[in-house]
Amino acid sequence: MRLSTSLLAAAGAVPLATAQLHELAVKAGLQYFGAATDTPGFREREPYPESYSQYDAILEDPKEFGQTTPTNGQKWLFVEPEPGVFNFTEGDYVADLANRTNKILRCHALVWHSQLAPWVETTEWTKEGLREAIVRHITEVAGYYRGRCAHWDVLNEALDEDGTYRKSVFYNVLGEEYIRLAFETAAKVDPEAKLYYNDYGIERPASVKTAGAVRLVKMLKDAGIKVDGVGMQAHLHADNHPSEADLINTIGMYKEVVKEVAFTELDVRIKVPVDEQKLQWQSECYQKVVGACVKTKDVCVGITIWDFYDPFSWVPHVFPGNGASLLWFEDFSKHPAYDGMVNYFGELIEAQGGNSTCS
């Protein structure tokens, strides 16, 4: 999809050809601006091999993206497809890319109720058996990547929409114990990695799920268990998203219980068809995330978008009638949100005196 010059102008895009997102984020005081990516030839990427060369050039540019995350390759389904049988091929693709292009690597995710290998869900578990499976999985996976992951999403989406614990196979057998076990094990296996709780719907200060995330982390801290950060996935909506002030207030809530937070899976979906107004709303949403993170840079370390190229987004596959959630359209023209963020980063840097350093 290509938008006309008039449509881009109407949506507030002001091209700044030499400015790039990671470079600006660091100047504004963040550690990184990054993009997640997946394995070529699989899932959303499979139908678009002709785009790989141009896509890779953008992804690998160190000024554009200084961090990356494997969207799928380190999940249980792919790394331990059978009990005790490990395959790191897909995770290695992104880990090797990060090493080759000097990017920070966020690793994702050790324990999650979704994208599990079938055997995890079909086994009739005893408590001891499931404890052993969790410890083995984390020990093997985090141990294999030890020293390469700046962050680990140790636990992903353990809360239901009402802020209570999700009734996953892990919770149904072990209760809250599995949460403590996951973080205790990860801390032993990779003591240098920052350990995160990661979830969606925890970006608004009044949300019961946000309160649930605070309680979960506080439970770990009160037990003397290492947890370093909260990851706000930030799968947001162009037409209904948190204000910058709301995001700042939410970060303040997490600051009471952890030393750092990050926006870990940012995208801003639009109800199709795309039009000028929706692109404007999207641009405003992306800018609010930038502003909130930079204005709390003592705790907010960085922003990761959940891929950057619309055809590779998960959104249309999971939320029919929604799309255009990222920063590059199918023809590699940029969304107005890209230049909106560039401009806002510039304003924030200028307000800091133009010479900020990494927090």
Identify the notable features of this structure and list them briefly.
alpha/beta, 14 helices, ten-stranded mixed sheet, disordered N terminus, 359 residues, single chain
What report would you give on this structure?
- Strands 1, 2, 3, 4, 5, 6, 7, 8, 9 and 10 form a 10-stranded mixed β-sheet that branches.
- Mean pLDDT is 94; it is low at 1-17.
- This protein is of the alpha/beta class and 359 residues long.
- The chain has helices spanning 5-10, 21-27, 52-60, 76-79, 89-100, 118-122, 127-144, 169-174, 177-189, 208-222, 244-255, 276-295, 315-318, 336-351; strands at 32-35, 67-68, 104-112, 151-156, 194-199, 229-232, 235-237, 260-271, 300-305, 322-323.
- The longest helix is centred in the C-terminal third of the chain and has 20 residues, at 276-295.
- The radius of gyration is 20 Å and the shape is globular.
- It has 14 helices and 10 strands.
- The protein starts with a helix and ends in an 8-residue tail after the last helix.
- 41% of the residues lie in helices and 15% in strands.
- α10 (208-222) links the parallel β5 and β6 (229-232).
- Pfam families: Glyco_hydro_10.
- It is an enzyme of class 3 (hydrolase).
- Residues 36-344 form the GH10 domain.
**Uncertain parts:** 1-17
Mean pLDDT: 94
Fraction of residues in helix: 40-55%
The structure class reads alpha/beta
- Helix run count: 14
Run of helices and strands? HHEHEHHEHHEHHEHEEHEHEHEH
EC number: 3.2.1.8
Domain GH10: 36-344
Subcellular location: Secreted
Family: Belongs to the glycosyl hydrolase 10 (cellulase F) family.
